[in-house]
Specification:
288 residues; alpha/beta; D-Maltodextrin-Binding Protein, domain 2; 2 domains; six-stranded mixed β-sheet; five-stranded mixed β-sheet; 11 strands; globular; disordered N terminus
């Protein structure tokens, strides 16, 4: 009888804890939170990349978290504007665009290691500085990429080059590696980690970094402006409380290698992203 009574007590206690965890969400939180990542296109890739994270975040919040796939960065910004998505994981460039075009709210961020831009050339190249890229062909990532478009364009501008007249910039996304390996371009301006990826794809190749940027602002979970502050605070608090488990859930599928060694942070400021806004203006894409 004592064992039965003890079991009944434990069951009741666990039920109470689970109920309390679920009830902890403010009443003004949506019954369902729709989640997107600006770097993920389509439902299939979202499920493959974030399936474990979706389930873990649902458990942590006691709120149903569902995917909202987007086709590109522009679609993600529009989805926020028309209240089709509630939370977006965005890079610094995407956040700079979002906040310039609609009310959004900062949540927590992800601080990455080795997060910056690097320009790389073949070891036997006669290019040694960014100024030497005049008249050359440079591969970058895709439009709006922080480390693969906006920041490398800014670096070229600061080196005295006009990116429209002095050289040819090719936004090749994934094909940038092959273009570099095959010497279809003279240099590649992309994320620092892409230097390692380039070497992995071409183990017999020899490459040299000619310029590197400062560390970039952190990636950020962004809430649409219509979500109440108390709900945003609740979700942010829970994400920080369970940050290690959530990051592990992001890493486990193996699709988000860029977050290896990263950590969740809650000390983000708007000023941190002002440098990205200035970079947009500097390269001819003012956000206001």
């Amino acid at each position: 009888m004592k064992i039965k009574a003890l079991l009944a007590t434990l069951v009741a206690a666990s039920t109470l804890i689970a109920t309390s965890a679920t009830a902890a969400a403010p009443a003004n939180c949506p019954a369902t939170l729709r989640f997107a990542d600006t770097g993920i296109e389509g439902m299939e890739e979202m499920v493959r990349t974030y399936g474990e994270f979706q389930q873990k975040l649902t458990d942590v919040l006691g709120i149903d978290v569902r995917f909202f796939p987007v086709s590109d960065r522009t679609a993600a910004v529009n989805a926020l504007q028309f209240s089709q998505v509630d939370i977006i994981l965005a890079g610094p460039s995407e956040y700079a665009v979002m906040r310039a075009r609609q009310p959004v709210k900062m949540m927590v961020g992800i601080e990455r290691t080795s997060y910056g831009t690097a320009f790389v050339v073949h070891e036997d190249s006669d290019i040694h500085t960014l100024a030497d890229l005049k008249g050359k062909r440079v591969a970058m990532k895709d439009p709006g990429s922080t480390t693969g478009h906006i920041v490398p364009s800014k670096m070229l501008h600061e080196a005295g080059l006009n990116i429209d007249r002095d050289l040819r910039v090719l936004l090749l996304d994934g094909a940038r590696f092959e273009a570099m390996i095959n010497r279809d371009v003279d240099a590649m301006g992309s994320g620092v980690r892409d230097v390692e990826r380039l070497q992995e794809r071409d183990p017999n190749g020899r490459y040299r970094v000619i310029a590197e940027s400062d560390t970039m602002p952190r990636d950020i979970f962004v809430a649409r402006g219509g979500i109440e502050d108390s709900c945003v605070a609740f979700v942010s608090e829970k994400m920080m409380e369970h940050s290690e488990a959530l990051l592990e859930a992001i890493l486990n599928p193996g699709e988000r290698r860029k977050y290896r060694g990263a950590r969740f942070v809650n000390d983000l400021t708007e000023e941190e992203y002002d440098r990205i806004t200035r970079a947009y203006a500097l390269v001819g894409y003012p956000l206001d």
